[in-house]
Automatic annotation (TrEMBL):
Family named by the database record: Belongs to the leucine-binding protein family.
A Pfam family hit: Peripla_BP_6
Protein name from the UniProt record: ABC transporter substrate-binding protein
Gene3D superfamilies: 3.40.50.2300
CDD domains attached to this UniProt entry: PBP1_ABC_ligand_binding-like
Domain Leucine-binding protein span(s) in chain numbering: 27-363
Keyword terms of this UniProt record: Amino-acid transport, Signal, Transport
Keyword Transport: yes
Organism: Rheinheimera tilapiae
Length: 370
């Protein structure tokens, strides 16, 4: 009888140990829906590459107290209906701990009802739109500066410093375009100006002939643009072919590296960015990113740097929740984190950590003083 009891306890203890080990090895799953194919593919690919530099290094060192982080990705092609489908899978089938690094305003807008219903943490989306900066949505954490701040920076440089008065808008016709256009118009109105033209184009298209014709007729000094890199490259190239070469200004979402790589000189393009030049090694933050890149056969990029930043903050917050790995703890700890020498000042009303904007000239890449 005694031997049977001992055997029973041994089996019970062994089963408990195996169960504990299995639980300890279960990864913390993060769901990321993003374009990994189509005209905006590099946005998703580079953001996830930058984030995985952090996650892979952490996992190689044993994870969070033995628990790895797994970034689960699904391709949405930058189309909102596919983003909704992917998000349902993450929430209802894969039971991810949080949603991370989603790409875009129309995609984020499409899933807001799901987010508000499930209250799953929605972290570091690649968009500066106001829809993710509402006071009541406490499940959201934004790393990057807003489109409002980008529009204000561009207006100060082009209108106040360079005294441009003929401003045209080239706008992607969706929630992304509307979210930035609103702030461009506000900055112009503040200076008693109106755009000489507002020209729209469809998301995920490169048919820009009509848009360029309309812009050329307006004779702008500067064109404020809202779109991804491929249609903007096409628009600038078509303008060059038709002796139309105004100054262009793009926002951070565009994909600055892709834009610069695909354009042929001469062109006058400026970009507002929410992270510094990924080649600027005077920054401790950039040096950390480039050190992590050394083991990978990948190029440095502003989008990769933003993914690296978002993942670094997230990992730091996870470490602060050791012994209390809950979504509540994570959301409480995220605003407390630091990012090397990169300044963060969390604002609870907008759930936003950074307010830094860098304005660069792309020919060559040169930081401008505003």
């Amino acid at each position: 009888m005694r031997f049977r009891l001992v055997g029973f306890y041994v089996v019970a203890l062994w089963s408990a140990l195996l169960s504990w080990l299995a639980d300890a090895q279960q990864p913390i799953k993060l769901g990321m829906s993003a374009p990994f194919s189509g005209p905006a593919a590099q946005l998703g690919l580079q953001f996830s590459d930058g984030a995985n530099l952090v996650f892979d290094r952490l996992n190689a060192q044993g994870g969070i107290n033995g628990t790895p982080i797994q970034l689960v990705t699904l391709d949405d092609g930058y189309e909102p209906l596919r983003t909704v489908e992917n998000t349902r899978k993450f929430l209802l089938e894969q039971q991810v701990f949080a949603l991370f690094g989603y790409i875009g305003t129309p995609t984020s807008s499409a899933i807001l009802p799901l987010l508000r219903k499930h209250q799953r943490p929605y972290l570091a989306a690649f968009t500066g739109a106001d829809i993710l900066r509402q006071p009541d949505d406490k499940f959201i954490f934004n790393f990057r500066a807003s489109y409002r701040e980008e529009a204000a920076t561009q207006a100060r440089y082009f209108i106040d410093q360079r005294q441009f008065r003929r401003v045209a808008l080239l706008i992607q016709a969706d929630e992304f375009g509307a979210s930035v256009e609103r702030w461009y118009l506000a900055e112009l109105a503040r200076r008693q100006l109106q755009p000489v033209a507002i020209v729209r184009f469809q998301r995920n298209t490169t048919d820009m002939q009509n848009a360029v014709s309309q812009l050329k007729e307006a004779i702008p000094d500067v064109v404020f643009t809202v779109g991804t890199y491929q249609p903007l490259v096409k628009a600038i190239e078509l303008g060059q072919q038709n002796q139309f070469n105004p100054v262009y200004s793009v926002v951070s979402f565009t994909g600055i590296q892709q834009l610069q790589q695909q354009l042929k000189q001469p062109y006058q393009v400026f970009a507002s960015m929410v992270v510094p030049d990924p080649h600027d090694t005077t920054s401790e933050f950039v040096r950390a990113y480039r050190d992590a890149l050394k083991a990978e056969n990948k190029q440095a990029s502003d989008i990769g740097l933003e993914g690296f930043a978002a993942a670094s903050i997230l990992v730091s917050a996870f470490k602060s929740c050791l012994g209390n790995m809950t979504q509540t703890c994570l959301m409480q700890q995220l605003p407390q984190q630091r990012l090397y020498d990169f300044s963060l000042h969390y604002q609870p009303d907008t759930h936003q950590a950074s307010h830094q904007i860098f304005l660069y000239q792309l020919t060559p890449l040169k930081l401008l003083k505003i």
